[in-house]
Structures are given as C-alpha cells and as structure tokens.
Amino acid sequence: MKMLHFAVLFALLFSSSSHAADFCVAKLKGAGSPAGYACRMPSMVTVDDFVFTGLGVAGNTTNIISAAVTPAFVQQFPGVNGLGLSMARLDLAPAGVIPMHTHPGASEILFVVQGKITAGFISSSANTVYVKTLKKGDVMVFPRGLLHFQINAAGIHAIAVVSFSDPDPGLQITDFAFFANDLSSELLEKSTFLDDAQVKKLKKVLGGTG
Description:
Elements: H1 2-17, E1 67-72, E2 86-92, E3 97-102, E4 108-114, E5 117-122, E6 129-134, E7 139-142, E8 148-152, E9 158-164, E10 172-173, H2 174-179, H3 185-192, H4 196-206
Antiparallel strand pairs: 1-2, 2-9, 3-8, 3-10, 4-7, 4-9, 5-6, 5-8
C-alpha cells in the first residue's frame, strides 16, 4: 500500500512539474475563436512567425478620417497567438481622427512617437470623461471595452505605437456601427435623438442604407 501511495505521489509531482508549450503560433487557415487559433505544428514554425516588420511603414491616411492603423494582431503576426498581447501603429495626418470606438477584447496603451495627440476615454459607470493632449514620449492607457478616441492636436503628421492586452483586441467604431449599416433611419432617430436630416446625412457619408 505504501508503494502505491508513493507511486501516486510521484505521478502527481511529475504531472505538476510539466509545463505548457512554449508558444502556440496561430494556424490561420482554421477558424479563430474567443480562445484564439489552433496551434501550428512546431516543426512548421520559423523565426519569421515571431517577427513583424510592418510598423516601420507609414499607413495611408488618404481617407475620410485622415488616419490609418497598421495592426500587428494575430491575423498579421501569428506568433502572438495565446500570448495575451499585440501591437499596432497609428498615423494621424493633420486634422486626422480615430473616431470614438471600443476594443471589446483588450485594454490599450498608446505611446506618442511624433507630434501631439489629444486622446480620451469615457467611463462606463458615471460617464466621466478623461482627456489629455499628449506630446512625444507620453503614454496613455485605455481600459478594456471603454469608448475612446484619438485626434491629431498639431499641424504635423502624428505617429503613435499602441499595445493591446490581447492578440485580437476587436474593434467597433461607434459612428460606423450606427450609420454604416442597414438599420432604418426611423429607429436610429428614435434611439439617438437625431433628426431625420442628420441621420440621412451621416448614412450617406458612411455608406449606410435604410
């Protein structure tokens, strides 16, 4: 009986000393899930899976918001799968703006590399606004899921690097969620207190119907 107890204890100690795999490079051909992507076979992993080179290239800011985001999320950077982090580059042309939006899956830290950026978020409990104009070298954190924005606060091109607490932080831009779909104008007017002319104007600008 003592030998049996010893064997069981040894097995428990051995199993508790084992550890999870060092990494789980995403197998992007399969479908993702809230838990992430399936792992690629280690024999199919190379050093390039752990390197992303896109953040050194300026994004194209010739668009309606005069801004660009270059993501290094799991879809572009499979090596971050399962590691609880990702990054992106933010380019804001003069007058550029990242409209009010949320990241349902992650908190965000923004580091200003160039220019000035006015950034802020709104708390969910009391709708308190936290806003600050950031200069080169400043860092600001945006808690997970809260509405936040970034606006170029100077007359020069602004650049920031952002880090997220999830490989796939998700994104929902409030303006596009309201006005770039087929939700009827009548329902939007009732739920937003905007008049018919304002709703139709925004739908036309953002490509919505209904």
